[in-house]
Request: fold
Amino acid sequence: MKADAIGFGIAGVAFGLVAGWVIGSQQPRGGAVAAPGAPIAAAAAAAAPAAPATAALDRAKVSELMAQAQRESANADVRAQLGNLYFDAERYSEAISWYEESLRLRPKDVNVSTDLGVSYYYTNQPDKALAQFDKSLEMDGRHAKTLLNVGVVRAFGKQDLAGAEAAWQQVLAIAPDGPEGQAAKRALDSLRSVHQSGATPPKPGA
Reply:
């Protein structure tokens, strides 16, 4: 997806500064991804950035790329670009199909693998997202963007704040001065504020 689209996006929920940078353009409509409870959300809501508008699907560009994909059966890039267009328009199921096609042709593309994991998360498949991130980390165990996403999915999709904290600590160790490291630091600061306030994180299904 776009370089900035894998960034700042689940704004307005807990750790909004992080989730915003990490996973796509914004939380999808229709409740596909459950937001955490109010006590956690309050920890970072005041600092959360405004969610950017969802990109409209560029149908002319889609048609052009689909025609190219038909002509070039071994072109992984064009399939990843189609995935990006659908992702940015919040059409995650279609994005998944194109990312999977791209990875079939180029299975060691860590960025496409992570984008695929993000798309799984947005279609309410957190376990599948984490499994895909594991594949990304097998390719590059220091891929900061993947680790940042692991933290977000563990926090939001699994209510596993300890696992989220561990992933974000790894990001800080790997890229403390990069955007991923700064986002991880803000997430960890928000998590500590929750602990200090004595708030109880929501349980799965709450």
Q: What stands out?
A: Residues 2-14, 24-52, 201-206 have pLDDT under 50 and may be disordered.
